[in-house]
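During the first year of the project, the team set up a workflow for recording each protein of interest as an amino acid sequence followed immediately by a discrete structure-token representation. This format lets reviewers and collaborators read both layers of information side by side without switching files. As required by the reporting guidelines, we include two representative entries from the current panel. The first entry is reproduced here exactly as it appears in our internal archive.
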Amino acid sequence: MWRCLTFALALTVPGLTGAAGAAERPALPEFEVADRLMPEDPLPERQILWSNPAVTVTDVAYATVPGYRALHLDLYRPARTAGPVPLIVFLHGGAWAYGNPRAAAAFRNFPVILSHLAETGYAVASVEYRFTEEAAFPAPVEDSQEAIRFLRANGERLGIDGSRVGVWGMSAGAYLAAMTALNCAEGGCVQGWVGWFGVYDFTNETSPDADTRRLLGCGPERCTAQELERVSPIRYADRNDPPTLLVHGTADEPVASQRLAKRLQAAGATAELLLIPDAAHGFVGSSEAATKSALRQALTATFDFFDRVLQPKRQG
């Protein structure tokens, strides 16, 4: 009779002992579960390595619109503050089709400018938004409004005074700032805004350019008069609008800023206009020195404006 023999095969693996090395493997961490799939980013806020110890910079996911990528903003805050600080939301340019929150005008290192503003007593949120190839109007305006709502809702945690909010935009971002400020949505209204070399009225354009048509999503050749009026910030100008500062170069067709300033003033709102001689789009001048001078003028006027509107105690 054959006898069945059972052999135990012992495997020796370096670093493992016992049953599959259980003696040396650390215990699994404690974790929580939900009753459904949750695709949200569990780390929506990431500290960014930054060289200025007086300012912290955090990458914050402020919205996830179904069907689109998560939307982020860079939040600059003073490292030491006695209490909540006013908020300035920055909207970058790029024909509503490109650009990013860390680039603007002719600045080689725009985060240095945003960091300086934060160091003087502000929270500064530089916001990304959906581009025209992703979603047409009003998507980027809605993103700006949502960023403001998110920051207000999380103001206590982030050290933000939600009653003192300003918005600042350049070029395409100036248009978004205008729509945000002059046609504000619930929770997204602001106490002041600044527009640099923006476009505020499409109704005079008999043939809008390709960038504008992509923004509006109104066909390959033309947009209707009703569509152009609906998306023009100047249409919403009235006496209840917040204080406004418009900055434009005289070599950059400043009529858009001139017309909006005049309309706001006629309606009884507070509107200031600064025209910088010989500066082209982005405040680019005839030389590096001219460009730097134009940008210094624009920055000084902008920061002084926000101090008057959002930090009135400084003016007392």
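The second entry, processed by the same pipeline in the following quarter, appears below.
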Amino acid sequence: MTRKIRWGVLGAARIAREKVIPAMQRGEFSQVAAIASRDPGRARRWAAQLGIPKACESYEELLADREIDAVYNPLPNHLHVPWSIRSADAGKHVLCEKPIALSVAETRSLIEARDRNRVKVGEAFMARSHPQWLRSLELVRSGRIGGLRLVAGFFSYFNRDPNNVRNVEGWGGGGLLDIGCYPVTLSRMLFGEEPLRVLGLMERDPEFRTDRLTSVMLEYPSGQCVFACSTQLVPYQRMQLLGTKGRIEIEIPFNAPPDRPTRVLVDDGSSVTGDGIRAEPLPACDQYTVQGDLFSRAILEDTAVPTPLEDSIRNIAVLEAVFRSARTGQWERPVL
């Protein structure tokens, strides 16, 4: 019988209830063994609905449970580092939702906790492990589109609920941290480089003070990335990779559906009408199942987690630089 990592979940966030927990329950190497909430009734209710064996009446109770190997942390952004550190100090491995921290300094404290406790800690960038992105990366590295010069994208949804954590500035709300982090991490992956400097333009909600429309330019040694993200526009997402000889388009780059195939569109550039586009279908998969199993295998086999903190801190440095640029109106360099 395959050994499974026993996971505990901190809180009953929507992403955990609707996406991550059901996906991990289908994993080959992952078992969701417990869920905790500061509201005991809420923990019992969701444990019953999701078929989770144990409901913990507090986060502390879950962390003290010796039968839990690893913790999934989907708490609001400002609680990512504090509770991930407490989890590591309890001897648990940690998979934490993105953005894993609100600053480079916070990320350094988490790295210290990981090293001090000799546990594995990683950021939940599920898209990076989806086959459509692995195939796109393979196509770029093979030279199919020539030299990669431009990564361009857009990601938006509409949410003006004042009670939603994404609209609370002090909790790390706003578009850049919630969804702008995806084009940053994926463009870094595709170029295999770090941005030299960044430029950011932000429009903030007059009531929430969170960034509701952010446009970004990243200058890499080999090319550029440009993207916009918004929390108050029509739901939409798309990513394009433009090279000297061709183009790749990812149709649903971030929220790939788990129940139907995805497509990577490869354009040889022979016609502006699209005659040179060839679609590469990829079989359906749940990227949250893949993410959970990859992390569980990293624990079982003592290998690197999919998105380690050494990568996360570089991503956070870029996001910090974008915020600085939006304030100064100038190009800013990421600082580790």
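For the second entry, the following points were noted during internal review. The domain at 127-288+317-328 is CATH 3.30.360.10 (Dihydrodipicolinate Reductase; domain 2). The chain has two domains: 5-126, 127-288+317-328. Both points are flagged for discussion at the upcoming steering committee meeting.
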